[in-house]
Amino acid sequence: MKAFLMYKDQDFDLERPLPSNEPALTQDLELNTLFDAMVLDDKFLLDVVKKAVLSGLNDPDTIVYRQHILKDCLKNASIVRDIYDIAVESIENKRKGWYSIYSSSHPSLTLFSSIRMLQMFVDLLIKLRNIADKHDDKFVSEGFKAFFAMIKKELDDEYFVTVQNHLRELEFRDGTLISAELGKGNEGANYTLRKSQDKKRGWMGRAFAKKPLVYSFNIHPRDDGGTRALSDLTDRGINLVANAVAQAADHIDNYFKMLRIELAFYIGCLNLYEQLVQMGEPVSFPAPFAPNERRHACKGLYDICLALTMKQKIVGNEMDADNKDLAIITGANQGGKSTFLRSIGLAQLMMQSGMFVPAEFFSSNICERLFTHFKREEDATMKSGKFDEELGRMSEIVDNLTSNSMVLFNESFAATNEREGSEIARQITSALLEKRIKVFFVTHQYEFAHGFYNKRTENAIFLRAERQDNGGRTFKVIEGEPLQTSFGEDLYKEIFTRSD
Questions:
Q1: Fewer CB near the terminus (10 Å): N or C of the chain?
Q2: Are 445 and 320 contained in the same domain?
Q3: Are residues 364 and 447 in the same domain?
Q4: Residue range 287-306, pLDDT digits in tens
């Protein structure tokens, strides 16, 4: 049995390594705020959510497959949580009541432990089957339809009757029937567990049935050596059966483990969704496009981490960057440029993991890799200058870039003078565009921004943080030509003008 709730035809790999730039993404996009809201202090959920969000999908069909499953989860949240609780219960019960079924060198002990574990699993499988019987008609996604169909097919009534009969028989309440042959030196060989006598006959039939010719002996209660010898004979006879039962228990155990892993991602999404609904923030399911296309449009896009931090609705933005490779964002300080840039990166990661996104509408082509190059504080150790550190991080990004990746720059290469910084930014951006890398660049460097604007590049869009005539910020990012002023007048009034 397989869950197949993250992929159509494969399990989710929790052991996959995180991308090499995970620390930078986490810091620059403030991902810990997002993760905290999704996992609610659950370390297991954190492991799954980080892997799912940071190891995004590159296939639109798989993204849509997860989206449909998540939509089912949002409509049937309590049912999905009940299924998840069953998977968690199986693992918790095993941890509390059973050691490893392979830890013992005694087959009889392995068999006893495996039977108890299977009995516990069967009870939980019955719960799972009951949920499928009662609620499968409420789910419409391909993933959940296949999930419930598999449960009803594999866990039918006949299955449970057969399993329960086998478990009772394996308890050997009437003793263990074992055959053996004489080997070298008249030692026992080829020990084989045999089926016990037919119990379908009534007691009178068994009482008057012809008795087979047997030779028997009794072991004295104080004969420890004889008892150990008899136990050893029993272990040899049931060894194969014990291993088979242990493997069956292990198989069901692995199924519950995988079910827990794959549902954990959706539980995290449910936790996040419930918090956003309480704040009145919109969410939508994005339209993903193939990596080689150039699509990027949104309406009401907001920085979800800022909303979670402030616990209130925040300003959303619109953008139509379809058929664009480059977006340059300029404007006044504290106008929402960095917030907008983070919202772009967060929405891209969430889309490519199969989640909803924080927007009224969002569409984008898939990016093979996502990188961030945000400004950093001065190196406290003084091992290198700020500009050297920026170039070093840029070199690491270049070493890992692939076509159809996306790079988010935030005030990059501003640690040197305007002319040098603009020229370096221009050369790097131009080289990235030649390699089909999508670039979003927040900058105060007018020479760099206006240089691209003057070229009237068709595959570029120019955005600006909106500023009112009185200096007020709307925190909206609008389309517009880069302005030469850095709004120093705002700073002058703030610092030097005193009201009487």
A1: C
A2: yes
A3: yes
A4: 999 999 999 999 999 999 99
Q: What is the pTM of this model?
A: 0.86
Q: Are 260 and 352 part of one and the same domain?
A: no
| Residues 259 and 341 occupy one common structural domain | no
pLDDT digits (tens, 9 = 90+) for 36-52: 999 999 999 999 999 99
Domain harbouring 380, CATH code: 3.40.50.300
> 330 and 258 share a domain?
no
Q: Which residues constitute the domain of residue 308? A: 284-496
Residue 237 has pLDDT above 70, yes or no: no
Residues 418, 491, single domain; the answer is: yes
Residue 418's pLDDT is: 87
SS (H, E, C) the chain: CCCCCCCCCCCCCCCCCCCCCHHHHHHHCCHHHHHHHHHCCCHHHHHHHHHHHHCCCCCHHHHHHHHHHHHHHHHCHHHHHHHHHHHHHHHHHHHHHCCCCCCCCCHHHHHHHHHHHHHHHHHHHHHHHHHHHHHHHHCCCHHHHHHHHHHHHHCCHHHHHHHHHHHHHCCCCCCCCEEEEECHHHCEEEEEECCCCCCCCCHHHHHHCCCCCCCCCCCCCCCHHHHHHHHHHHHHHHHHHHHHHHHHHHHHHHHHHHHHHHHHHHHHHHHHHHHHHHHCCCCECCEEECCCCCCEEEEEECCHHHHHHHCCCCCCEEEECCCCCEEEEEECCCCCHHHHHHHHHHHHHHHHCCCCECCCEEEEECCCCEEEEECCCCCCCCCCCHHHHHHHHHHHHHHHCCCCCEEEEECCCCCCCHHHHHHHHHHHHHHHHHCCCEEEEECCCHHHHHHHHHCCCCCEEEEEEEECCCCCEEEEEEECCCCCCCCHHHHHHHHHCCCC
